[in-house]
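Appendix B, Record 12. Input sequence as logged:
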Amino acid sequence: MKRTRRELLRDAACGLGATAFFSALTRFSRVDAAASGPATDYRALVCIFLFGGNDGNNTVVPYDGYADYGKVRGTALNIPKASLHQVAAPSQGAAFGLHPVLTELASLYGTGQLAVLCNVGTLAAPVTRSQYLAGSERPDSLFSHADQQSQWQSSVVRSLDANALTGWGGRMADAAASLNSGSFPMIVSVSGVPLFATGLHARPLVPGSGLQGFSNSAAGQARLAALRQILADGAQQLVGIASQISTAAIDDSAILNAALAQQSALKTTFPGTSLGRQLLQVAKLLAARTALKLNRQIFFASLGGFDTHTDEVATQQTLLTQVSQAMSAFYAATVELGVAADVTTFTLSDFGRTFQPASGGGTDHAWGSHHFIMGGSVKGGNFYGTYPDIALGGPDDTSNEGRWIPTVSVDEYGATLARWYGVDPASLSRVFPNLGRFAKPDLGFLLP
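Logged structural output:
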């Protein structure tokens, strides 16, 4: 019996995921990038988003100023000084301590492949404590998880701004589209379809979630037959467009699978954690870069659970252990693949957390925090930006609970990465529309 178009669309949708749709859409919506042609070198950016708001105060601890830290954090939250990984921070003229479980990252810091970016956050413009208290230049919905996650990923702090609908990773891909010689998607997410990876034209490919349900079962074959019937029915305009997009999605999946099948198994051992598995997948995709004809790639991975209102010490210890081990394994894999200097990995998170402890051994939502940048092109072994004055009610506090006012913007952070990636300086204002309000479009933590 002939099936209705509604039934065909329904069954095909079960097998062709939205992520495949979005990745394929890139082929039909490319715009001319500022670059003049395909790049002759290779570079990749790997974003690791720590969902929930990682507590930077216990991630990067003042070592020389430990007494002031311990006095406020108290027995519920302080990390014993003797357990910290002491590191020098020449730019700050002081020593600091990395969280005790960041053993692997401390080692990379010591050998120059890891840097710390201090007190970075969402900003509409540079703002002082007095300006903040007067209500000027505040981002929308500060201290809200959903809003701050969006602002970190979009670099846009006003919800009514049209650019808030796209991410700065996606806009970078828009600007750098012509640096790749093939049509395979520049952005790959191993953690869903994030705003960060969504451009005006670019869309992320999400491996393993694009084409599903086409097994040898009766239901799987029915879905496949439905999809093929839609693709064959190109006479009608809407179905014709769907046919092109769906065919491209199938092609992308086939190209990816074929490219991965050509690669030798990695020798580097990854931890079997959530983030470890994601970064292993990214490493495999890096290995397939030549087969995919990619000179530039952007990846998105994530780890959740950082909303530590209670029991922070134990929870953060578990999560940061996973971060340190997975990032270290990933760096080792880039060395194995010969691309350590060509791959830069960096962290993002909703916001920092209050310096003042909350009840239950936790912390509340705050603002500025500290992040890690890792790779062979990183000018490591140093801090960038300025570590905040950790006095409650001091010049860097929004009130008296230790919500640090950022002194580095997401725009400056992202623009530094984008310039290294190869985005034309003339295009930076399109990728980061608010960049002109800040003093440092290049924070200097990457080699040219």
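The first strand starts at residue 43 and ends at 50.
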